[in-house]
Design brief:
Blueprint (H helix, E strand, L loop, with lengths): L5 H14 L2 E6 L9 H16 L3 E3 L7 E8 L2 E7 L5 E8 L4 H20 L2 H26 L3 E3 L1 H13 L5
Parallel strand pairs: 1-3
Antiparallel strand pairs: 2-6, 3-4, 4-5
Length: 172
């Protein structure tokens, strides 16, 4: 009979949790437009935060941990998922059409926010930032919906991935 003590169960959960995660994230250099210092900083923070704390699992695949390359190819979003050794596990290609309006609105609010932090009142900056965060949450939810049946991730992971998707569109 197997040992069903709590310590064995917790250990098994940790092992599964350690596999269902990203250990590296790379943005395709050919896809990325140069951003402002603020945008580059936001991208670096998103990658760091994503690696430090994420939940990422492929549907129907018990492997992991994973390395992720995010790219744009022919106006489509590419998630190239690899194993620890760098071998391709799966490549998911998503249409960006559902994101177009949201990305346009998001960048407009971001421009307003970055301009406001230099001259606006704190209450105005906070109001703009609330709008920016709302659009960011909407983008993360849309991404999670588009990945359904392919990749499972928690809300924080989806938010950070959406930040990186926006990084692919920044032209500076």
């Amino acid at each position: 009979m197997p040992d069903l003590s709590p310590s064995v169960s917790i250990s098994a959960e940790r092992e599964v949790g350690a596999r269902r995660r990203l250990i590296s994230v790379t943005l395709d250099e050919q896809s990325i437009g140069r951003g402002t210092a603020d945008q580059e900083h936001e991208r670096a923070i998103a990658i760091y935060d994503l690696i430090e704390d994420n939940s990422f699992a492929l549907e129907g695949h018990d492997g992991g941990p994973y390395a992720l390359l995010i790219a744009l190819h022919d106006a489509k979003l590419v998630f190239d998922v690899r194993d620890e050794s760098g071998a391709n596990v799966v490549t998911h290609i998503l249409s960006l059409t559902p994101f177009k309006r949201l990305l346009k609105d998001y960048f407009l609010v971001c421009e307003t926010y970055y301009a406001a932090i230099r001259t606006a009142t704190p209450s105005r900056i906070e109001a703009i930032d609330m709008g920016r965060r709302g659009l960011h949450n909407e983008g993360a939810a849309l991404l999670a919906e588009r990945l359904k049946g392919k990749i499972r991730c928690d809300a924080d992971t989806a938010r950070r991935l959406f930040t990186l998707i926006t990084a692919l569109h920044w032209k500076g």
